[in-house]
Amino acid sequence: MAIANNRLSAEAYEQHFSDIHPPFENREAALVEANRCLFCYDAPCIKSCPTSINVPKFIKQIATDNVKGAAHTIFLSNIMGGGCSKVCPVEKLCEGACVYNLMHETPIHIAKLQRYATDKALEGQWQLFTRKPATGKKVAVIGAGPAGLSCAHVLSREGIDVTIYEKEAKGGGLMTYGIAAYKVTPAYCEAEVDYITSLGGIQILYNQELGRDITLAALQQTYDAVYIGIGVGIARQLEIPGETLAGVTDAIGFIYDIRSKGYPAVPVGDKVAVIGLGMTAIDAATQAKRLGAKEVTIIYRRTQEEMPCTTAELDLAKLDGCQVQWLAAPKEIKGQNGQVSQLLCDVMQLSAPDASGRRSPIPTGNTFTLEVDMVIKAAGQTPFEMLVQQEQLAHRHGRILINEHCATNIPGVFAGGDCVNGGKEVVDAVQAGKDGAAAILKFLSIQ
């Protein structure tokens, strides 16, 4: 067994990481799908979208060949509607709510139609919004992820000049650095960021990190308000023996390397174990397999009924050849000569339901051992607790505390997205950015 990079040919990498949800082949195919829509009154698909995109409206616009109007309808609610059409778990959101499900028929392919319209907008560089005259107000946004970009776009439309401070070399946040490459490419993420900033009035300063290059106190002296959208990205540790052995990595770092360095440069083992079963765990497992791992085993301490990922995501991992070990928890990582060689796991069982109805996994006393040469930890993420303490932000275990107006304990400083909620979907972060912008506009007495 060995951990190695450059395992596959260029053609194999391209095939393994090609678009998993290809677009409609032509206009006619999009029109046929759009005309399946029943254009429901009080449509459940709208209610299930965190950004409340008017789905029946944009689909009817596509059906009547008004693609530009459809793109405007989407972007009015979700300026990252293009990216969300590729990465959203639509099976539990808009498409999961489609009334066709009640008829035991295939739901409308809402995401694919959304992609159809937004792709046209990005390709054609359609300017669908016009900035209002400059107000003279300036706002700093920390983080060029979905929350920060969404907030910036709404503010800029209202005539506010926005400067975004981003710690990475590219914008997009989770979209650019934290999602499987076969769902959305780095090139698309860059194009989406460029499209958002093409409105005008939005400047992004890269390699600028809160707590290292900038502080809230300094920003407040220059700007009329500050919005924090720094996300959540510190990998949770397993706290078991052997965690520092060579060959142990975290899923966030693993996916980051794939996104930033390219497929051939990222090493992967022959036999890989992935700890956890959230979306990030699935992305890590499937990409390890697509990088050339011979065996990938996902370790999850509960059963399929409790898994945090969707069934569609699990099916994807299984189709890629990943195995799942249910009711198992890592106990110790063993190694030889400083390198991972085995993963010792506890066999778990679920306890009786507690007051909330949740059943906790508890060890049975039995164990089993997997022969592995790489362990990828995907057991969740923890907020930037030390950072928010340093910036004197009120928080709960690192999650920034805000009131109903998205305001923090520091006057003029607002926050939203994963740094507040602990980590949700991209579309939730987009809505948080919109909410933050609305709160800032009210604070500045502009609306």
TrEMBL record:
One GO molecular-function entry: oxidoreductase activity
SUPFAM superfamilies: alpha-helical ferredoxin, Nucleotide-binding domain
Transmembrane stretches, start-end: none
Domain 4Fe-4S ferredoxin-type: 28-61
Alphabetized Pfam families for the sequence: Fer4_20, Pyr_redox_2
Organism: Chitinophaga agrisoli
InterPro entries for this protein: 4Fe4S_Fe-S-bd (IPR017896), DPD_II (IPR028261), FAD/NAD-bd_sf (IPR036188), FAD/NAD-binding_dom (IPR023753), Helical_ferredxn (IPR009051)
Protein name according to UniProt: NAD(P)-dependent oxidoreductase
Lineage: Bacteria, Pseudomonadati, Bacteroidota, Chitinophagia, Chitinophagales
